[in-house]
Hints:
Structural class of chain B: mainly alpha
CATH topology of chain B: MetI-like fold
Helix content of chain B: over 70%
Largest interface: A-B, 49 and 43 residues
Structural class of chain A: mainly alpha
Shape of chain A: flat
CATH architecture of the largest domain in chain A: Orthogonal Bundle
CATH class of chain B: Mainly Alpha
Oligomer: heterodimer
CATH superfamily of the largest domain in chain A: MetI-like
Amino acid sequence: MLRFILKRLGLALLVALTVSFISFSLLFLAGDPAIAIAGESANAKDIQAIRELYGFDRPMLVQYADWLWNALRFDFGQSYYFKLPVADLIAERLSVTMTLGVCGILFALLTAVPLGVIAAIRPNSLIDRIALFLSVAGQAMPSFWFGLILIVVFAIQLGWLPASGASSWQHFIMPTVVLGYYAMPAIMRLTRAGMLEVLSADYIRTARAKGAPEGRVLFKHALRNAIIPVVSLAAVQMGFMLGGSIVVESIFALHGAGYLAWESIGRNDLPTVQALILVFALFYIVFTFLADVLNAWLDPRMRSA
Amino acid sequence: MTALPDIAEITGPTPGQQLRKRMFGHQGFMIGAIFLALLVLVAILAPVLAPHDPYAQSLGDRMVRPVFMGGTWEHPLGTDHLGRDYLSRLIYGAQISLLIGAIAALISGLIGTTLGIAAGYFGGRVDAVVTFLINVRLAMPVVLVALAVVAILGGSLNVVIGVLGLLLWDRFAVVMRASTLQIRNREFVAAARAIGCSTPRILLSEILPNILNNLIVVVTLEMAHAILLEAALSFLGLGVQPPTPSWGLMVSEGKNMMLFEPWLVLIPGAVLFLLVLAINLMGDGLRDVTAPENRN
């Protein structure tokens, strides 16, 4: 088990390192950052001074090593736009995104797992069909459009919920639904498939044969086993969702890290964008690592992988 | 002398015939395929079908309502904030969505399939490297990276297609790797090796045709994915640029008038939803009929 964890940890670090290099390279794709900082009215001498001040005149790999060394100490440089440390900006915005992510995954799990279980217990029933419809529709639903529809119905027509902002818990209801619905179909399909498979296993037949009550068979014997892959999928989806929250945050004007990313891209604020790409990637890497470890802990067969 | 029975009577339906029968009998597949075929037709025939020039502005006819909301047949689906005919823009928008979806899926399919087959067939170090690349790709936040690259390179159709093509190859690689692993030790592959076929030939004429079914399924699903992402990028203002009639862009332009004219947002979004739904239904259906054992 320890060997497995160390191996996965090494892999995770290597992936993080590669992603950090790619996100750093974006700066070079963008052309001369000195011109971007100096503004359009600057002359050649000013630009050269900025180049030396920020160290843009050094070889790329040296700059990368420097950036990485600072990033390891949570120093992502200064935002071009706010003239503040990027790390502080992100730290300030991250709580909104994390709240949204946690609510979103909880919403997805609380709708997907019961639906998936009922659909598996009664295949081809009305509930199975509704569940299938919800998951097929969810996979095709453009999340920005879904968000706008919710705003039209619940904020404009009915006036029940606030359309934008993050000042109360009501502000998080619609974003949670939109983000959670994005993760729901995959979780529901996996729950249903897992339950169907487990329910046809020999030990379930044995449990029923010895007269265990049906509720106990379903929840103690079946669901416990079917839920293992769902937990790790949920962890992976959580990583995806934090990256996907950029769309949701922009619709509902939630000033989280996703919103900051969107604004910073529009403002050419590259240090912030680079740092955010790395932060979102790190979340995904950490969540998948936890999912792998959890899986290996619950199911020793996975440890050889 | 008795007549010899027809070959078809002895062998029964060929696998191809069986497949076609299952396809035509699959409700989801048929609904999706017919709707997609219709939209492709609409996109190709756009110059004939569109009642107006999708770029022609007419400031006197701004935000005319659709015919079912009290408008006239002059503009069946109304006009947008610049007086451009909404139906014509929707029809030309189908071209944009389908074009981006198809070419992005083609590019990512080429990258992902090459990586996946190589990893599955050669195994060992090649597999380790490809698996690592897949992990790196999955860790990159797609929307954020795509937005950043489009912002840097400028939002043209080619840039959007290129970015999506270079980002969406992960599922191809994962599925093709697994499919290749399943068949690489089968007899016909060993036989091809034994009679001295070159490795490229084995990969192209033994492996590839036998995993083609799975490849086509992933192509459809990734095409849907690319179409949704393009719409999201354009909606956020960093995809296809105005005045191009992209459905995502139309939703974004309609958003400002949403309070009084919600149909400006509802119509293009609904068409986008239906297109992606159709492609997904077709892809899911294909998976059911080509690999019933993988159904879940």
